[in-house]
Design goal:
The chain has about 675 residues and is an alpha+beta fold. It has 21 helices and 22 strands. The strands form 5 sheets. Strands 1, 4, 8, 9, 10, 11, 12, 15, 18, 19, 20 and 22 form a 12-stranded mixed beta sheet that branches. It has a 3-stranded antiparallel beta sheet with strand order 2-3-21, with no helix packed on it. A 3-stranded antiparallel beta sheet has the order 5-6-7, with helices on one face. Bound molecules: adenosine-5'-triphosphate. Pfam families: Kinesin. GO terms for molecular function: ATP binding; microtubule binding; microtubule motor activity. Belongs to the TRAFAC class myosin-kinesin ATPase superfamily. Kinesin family. KIN-7 subfamily.
Amino acid sequence: MGAIGGDEVEQWDKMNGGEVVNGGGGGLGKLEKILVSVRLRPLGDKEIARGDPAEWECINDTTIISRSTFPDRPTAPTAYSFDRVFRSDCDTKEVYKEGAKEVALSVVGGINSSIFAYGQTSSGKTYTMTGITEYTVADIYDYIGKHEERAFVLKFSALEIYNEVVRDLLSAENSPLRLWDDAEKGTYVENLTEVVLRDWNHLKELISVCEAQRKTGETYLNENSSRSHQILKLTIESSAREFLGKDKSTTLVASVNFVDLAGSERASQALSAGARLKEGCHINRSLLTLGTVIRKLSKVRNGHIPYRDSKLTRILQHSLGGNARTAIICTMSPAHSHMEQSRNTLLFASCAKEVVTNAQVNVVMSDKALVKHLQKELARLESELRCPASYFSLEALVKEKDNQIRKMEKEIRELKSQRDLAQSRLQDLLQVVGDNHVPKHSLASRRNFTFDVPQSCEDEQSTAESSEVVDSVPKFRFPGRQDAQREHRSQQAENNVQFTAPSRYSVSSPPFSGMPPTDRRDDASQISNEDSNDLCKEVRCIETNITEGNECLESSAVGSNSLQDSNNAGSSMHANNDSNPSVNSRLHEESPITLEQHLENVRKPFANLVKDIGSSMRNSSCSKVIGRSRSCRSLVSYSLFEDMEKDDCTPPSRSLMTSLGDLKTVKEGDLH
Ligand SMILES: Nc1ncnc2c1ncn2[C@@H]1O[C@H](COP(=O)(O)OP(=O)(O)OP(=O)(O)O)[C@@H](O)[C@H]1O
């Protein structure tokens, strides 16, 4: 037999509306306190005869009080509350319904249950339990009759513990029975007769047999006093009829114990002697152990519980804080003469109501069903083992992705910042280009701009505007260049329709160092980096045409060579300025030159260049490329000379060179 989850558990939970929790046995269980009620019997004939007043009164359904204080314990409480208290006029059926029925009938759902009657001798235990057993069995058979879809098997066994000896009440033999402990079944009674019930009448007969077999005796307090603890055990097995004999077949198995305890007694009151006295000692001793077990269970569940100190507690171990639902009905006499014994009963009941049991659904499975169930359980456990690992790996993956996202967001922010800066510089530049009358001081404040020459610089309008810009510079007029521009415009007008420059030649944004010539090179080497780079492109065009064997080679041979040299010089200078600090430093260490010298240095190469370009333009095909580049170059020249003017012709600083270098970088980036 085992306790498992599944439909049976849910069914039980619905039936009881309770909290299903993990049980100590590994299955699902229901933790709940023992249901404790107190039944007050009427005064007996003897008690009335001797004028023994009723001391106890049930003031409501849950509280019982004593009318007077205890003589020897004036501070002891006089009111006690329980799940239910029953007045002396309550019949046993009401006691059953409210104090035992729910717990007792759990057995049909596969839950073990136990109904106890506890109290002093002659308090009405047997009177109560006889009725409880009958009502329970009646309801069980009623339940069976209403659930024809299930097949029920009822088994009955009965024992008594007399003088600490276990006897089979259904056996004619009077031999004592031994107790055994089994890991699965718990403590069980060896060779105890178990009868399969045919019907309700069959059970009645067997109960009658038990009554006849049970040890009773006459005492001063009870003419028919029970001298032993009696345990009637009704075991119910049920299976769904549709699965009978099939693999899926499972069986609910549970037992309900009807425990009629022997009554505690004081020898002085019972006036017992001889055998009755001995019986009384055993009774009291086992009841004392039961009280100790209950008291300990009510305080700490995990401590040592002395179940083995008596056969009663060994046999009822599962009913006391184990796999069972339990109800205890404490019976008591209202007589003042039994006040102290009644108080002990109430103290026992007070402890019992704190005891928690852990009832589980008990299911027996067919071998095939058991194998299937175990396979299912194994798969579930394996899945649980895998889940934590996959969960942690997923968590790590998510963290890694989060870090990547944060990193990328940071990069995006930086790129946006760079983009905004470039756009800002471009705006500044466009504003400068578009405004021909920009105050010089504003230009001075834009020394670190990025200069981007638009593709449309090849347009005629742009060219004209550029020319105007150049013309608008009063102090640094560049007659040679203007002449070349005029020549170029004239030539371009002639060839306007014929030439379309490749877009790669339209980009012209070289940095212009404006440095004085410091290298021992020809005039071309004195051209600024800007023009050098510009010319570099132009020279390439020229060279291309030269290699094509055009006749312009001879006519422009000098200019080409000059340009090539200029290009080399410019490239060299640019490279040195950017990448060779020593050379750059050397350049700065040269003695300063005058403004006139500087202008002359700048003018000469341009004059030569323009002259050469003019010659080339008059030649056939190469002129188109040069003309286009010139219009761009004019823009650069304007800005450059504006700066030079502002700085009183001081050579452009390294920062300007850097800015122009940046311009080239940005422009190339935009093109990409
Ligand atoms: N609630 C009750 N109403 C009427 N009579 C009762 C009630 N309870 C008990 N009695 C009567 O009291 C007497 C003693 O009852 P009972 O034998 O059941 O006591 P007990 O606790 O079992 O005693 P013991 O422990 O000695 O066996 C009986 O005659 C019984 O009929």
